[in-house]
């Protein structure tokens, strides 16, 4: 293959390029991509009632494609480009070879690598939001929602928190790999959008069993193992900090799963596979803002808290708080991402180690990036409380941003197309919306007759949250 005319052979591997870092970053990006395609596609497609399997999986599949196109077109430069305002970058394409083959704002690899790595992060954020909208959102509305939310919400939080010119980044907020930008944003945006779209049909809310629990575990496993790239790629370098981030990620997650299962067993008598998956997700989310800046013992403590506090909000508060009961969130994205993401951000402000923070941020400033625990220990109490205040300010900012932006986007889309599927589509599901069924082949390739005219779905009641009794004594 010929090189671009302006690129000489010796410039294909410039002095600033670190081949090891580049290889790891591309690997990490691919692992993050696999979390969505096929990870969340499989998880969503198998965790819902069988009449919604195709629609749920396809919402994730579409979002991945749409985000990548918008990201290269304008999203990346709005998130990491030249500052337009204190909270947003200037829209511009990220497709020109002169731009893509140069060095990015961080890292010793081409900008093309950074665009792809950050792009798969943006993809998974939209797919997580989709988890709050399964089983009833008009697919045409989802087609519009994805690029609009990416443009007018995700880019703002990404620039403010991750871009060196962002206002929260300058204050010194710690978000190692997306606890705020991805998980808190997705949890709040998903909950807000779910309120605007409205609930599933009454029948689906009463009985919404997963159609394949074993396949659920396969999707969950891809999500868990893919997190090595999610957090391990955060430092933008194949470093000791990346190694620590990967280990902390898995230690925290394992602890969270065991904690969740213990609570399920103590209060309900049986460990639940769906509960284990929820505990896995809360552990992964909680450690994300802190992965490479806390010690292993702190990661285990965070896992204990991420396996218990979201468990309490999901299993106890959810049935007591009217708003949580009324807003239909079938994948519990609010609890597993908004609650766990906020928890992770707060615990990061408490447990972050100053030395590890300086490894990650490559700074020598002692007034920033000091966890409260270490500030109290080292006589830097003011700096520790300051860090905690910045972490809390970031949570408030992300919550307010996503409530407002998501509400405006849903309102705008509602002017053009209905946000919610029609009553006929809600009753029939995949066949009415896509003309396809997930379990349509019988015998030797014979297609099962269109079930639209047959009541063939007598679903077993296996819903995790709704089938559990209210825990009044917790």
UniProtKB/TrEMBL annotation:
Family of the protein in this entry: Belongs to the ammonia transporter channel (TC 1.A.11.2) family.
Regions that span the bilayer: 23-45, 52-74, 105-129, 141-160, 180-198, 210-230, 284-312, 332-352, 388-413
Protein name: Ammonium transporter
UniProt cross-references to InterPro entries, sorted A to Z: Ammonium/urea_transptr, Ammonium_transpt, Ammonium_transpt_CS, Na/solute_symporter_CS, NH4_transpt_AmtB-like_dom, RhesusRHD
Top-rank taxon, per record: Eukaryota
Annotated NCBIfam families: amt
Pfam families, per the entry: Ammonium_transp
């Amino acid at each position: 293959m010929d090189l671009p005319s302006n690129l000489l052979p010796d410039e294909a591997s410039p002095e600033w390029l670190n081949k090891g870092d580049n290889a790891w970053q591309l690997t990490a990006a691919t692992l993050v991509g696999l979390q969505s395609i096929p990870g969340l596609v499989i998880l969503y497609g198998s965790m819902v009632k069988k009449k919604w399997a195709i629609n749920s999986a396809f919402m994730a599949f579409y979002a991945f494609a749409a985000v990548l196109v918008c990201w290269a077109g304008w999203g990346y430069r709005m998130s990491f480009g030249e500052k337009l305002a204190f909270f947003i970058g200037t829209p511009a394409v990220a497709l020109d070879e002169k731009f893509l083959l140069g060095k990015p704002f961080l890292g010793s690899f081409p900008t093309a690598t950074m665009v792809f790595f950050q792009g798969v992060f943006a993809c998974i954020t939209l797919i997580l939001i989709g988890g709050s909208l399964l089983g009833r959102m008009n697919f045409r509305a989802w087609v519009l929602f994805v690029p609009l939310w990416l443009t007018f919400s995700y880019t703002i939080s990404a620039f403010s928190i991750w871009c060196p010119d962002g206002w929260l980044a300058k204050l010194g907020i710690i978000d190692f790999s997306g606890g705020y930008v991805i998980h808190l944003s997705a949890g709040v945006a998903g909950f807000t959008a779910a309120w605007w779209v409205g609930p599933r049909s009454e029948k689906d809310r009463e009985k919404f069993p997963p159609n394949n629990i074993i396949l659920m575990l396969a999707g969950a496993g891809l999500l868990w193992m893919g997190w090595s790239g999610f957090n391990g790629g955060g430092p933008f370098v194949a470093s000791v900090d990346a190694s620590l981030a990967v280990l902390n990620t898995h230690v925290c997650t394992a602890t969270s799963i065991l904690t969740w299962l213990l609570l399920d067993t103590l209060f309900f008598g049986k460990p639940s596979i769906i509960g284990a998956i929820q505990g896995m997700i809360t552990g992964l989310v909680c450690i994300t803002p802190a992965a490479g800046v806390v010690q292993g013992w702190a990661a285990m403590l965070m896992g204990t808290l991420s396996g218990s506090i979201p468990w309490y909000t999901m299993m106890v508060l959810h049935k007591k708080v009217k708003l949580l009961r009324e807003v239909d969130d079938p994948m519990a994205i609010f609890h597993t991402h908004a609650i766990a993401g906020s928890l992770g951000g707060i615990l990061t402000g408490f447990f972050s180690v100053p030395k590890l923070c300086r490894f990650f941020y490559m700074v020598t400033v002692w007034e920033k990036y000091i966890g409260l625990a270490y500030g109290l220990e080292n006589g830097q109490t003011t700096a520790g409380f300051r860090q905690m205040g910045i972490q809390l300010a970031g949570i408030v900012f992300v919550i307010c941003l996503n409530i407002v932006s998501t509400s405006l986007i849903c309102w705008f889309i509602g002017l053009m197309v209905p946000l919610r599927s029609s009553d006929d589509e809600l009753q029939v599901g995949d066949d009415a919306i896509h003309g396809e069924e997930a379990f349509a082949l019988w015998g030797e390739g014979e297609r099962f007759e269109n079930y639209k005219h047959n009541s063939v779905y007598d679903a077993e009641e296996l819903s995790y949250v709704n089938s559990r009794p209210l825990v009044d004594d917790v």
